[in-house]
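User: Please predict the structure of the protein below. I'd like the answer in structure-token form so I can feed it into my own downstream comparison script.

Assistant: Understood. Taking the following sequence of 205 residues as input:
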Amino acid sequence: TIGLGVGAEKFDRWIRRFGFGRPTGIQYPAEERGLLLDLDEYSGSTLGNEAMGQGLSVTPIQMVAGYSAIANGGMLRPPQLIKKIGDEPVEVPEGKRVISPQTSGEIREMLEGVLAAGGTASEVSVPGYTLGGKTGTAEVAENGEYSDTKYVASFIGFAPAENPQLLAAVIVDQPQGEIYGGSVAAPAFGQIAEFALPYLGMPQE
């Protein structure tokens, strides 16, 4: 319903604004760009399909870059693998603003709800820190259609939610038994955050 309300042109513009459909610019060779439909390829079901994450292909690093823009106040930047070479720091690209700081804050607050009571990852918590993130459960595409037995479960999260300093993505390809991102991938993010936040010296809230 939301996808249909946004409309094809605006929807296409926003997914491209966040960097999907092109390489992120990470310092790694042969980066995939993912697969997006052109506007003239949209069918009657495209908006309903893509708005819930089906019908297009994105890479984990594209997702990390997009969520980083939400976490950092609205700036989309190329992910960096190298902080410095010898004693020389590697220059961090300025990036570009894709959403306002206010919108970024509102989305972060919404994503806190995913880990709150009633959310799809409500069982994940780290004492002393507020977490934000999003679960994902995608059907695997094969032979021109979606499988009803193979899935990719994912969770992308950040912390502390109000001023994120850590962001991590957990992707589980074809989990066995449980299939949902909230039960398969989110607990792993919780374990990563529980170790990494004190290790990085992040003060408790």
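That's the full token string. The chain has a mean pLDDT of 95.
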